[in-house]
Amino acid sequence: MNTSEFLSLLKQHQDKSLLFEYTDGKFVGANYHITEVKNITIDSIDCGTQTDFWKETIVQLWESPDEIGKTEYMSTYKALAILNKVDRIKPMTRDAEVKIEYSNDNFHTAQLFVNDYALDTNSLIFKLSVQKTDCKAKETCGVSEKTEKVVAEEGCCTGNSACC
Predict the structure, then answer these.
(1) Burial annotation 91-127 (CB, 10 A radius, 16+ → b, else e)
(2) Regarding predicted confidence, which is higher, 150 or 124?
(3) Which of the pair, 137 or 126, is modelled with greater confidence?
(4) The 97-104 sheet, strands edge to edge
(5) What is the mean pLDDT of residues 3-19?
(6) Chain-centre distance of CA 150, in angstroms?
(7) Fewer CB near the last or first residue (10 Å), C or N of the chain?
(8) Are the C-beta atoms of residues 61 and 79 closer than 8 Å to each other?
């Protein structure tokens, strides 16, 4: 989901509570705060020497230990107000992918993709997902789609590989 779509959903549903489902059936606690918004520029080169460039908007969520047990979630209205304030100071790129950065005691820190959303009577729920790392240069590097377990002693680069 891009930043524009994310903001549009918030704007359309300002009367609802804002929830984030970080894995199936598990939600960021109601004690969360939006602690940072990052406008990220990625300028990369993959193992096959192909360059790439894109932008991302990262919205960081943090659960306040002082508000454990809180049951009322942040409203989309409040989240939108925070993001609009950020946008006035550091404009967000509207076509940039939006990701949610989050962790808790039982879930590693991750930048999660907004995979989908759901609505119910009271809530706008963003369904988040982790995307596995992948080789972008499979063809160049001679990597098959089906991955095989690599034995550590062999190393990752061979004399026949176009990579490394």
Answers:
(1) ebbbebbbbbbbeeeeeeebbbbbeebeeeeeebbbb
(2) 124
(3) 126
(4) 26-27, 17-23, 123-129, 107-119, 97-104, 51-63, 32-45
(5) 98
(6) 29
(7) C
(8) no
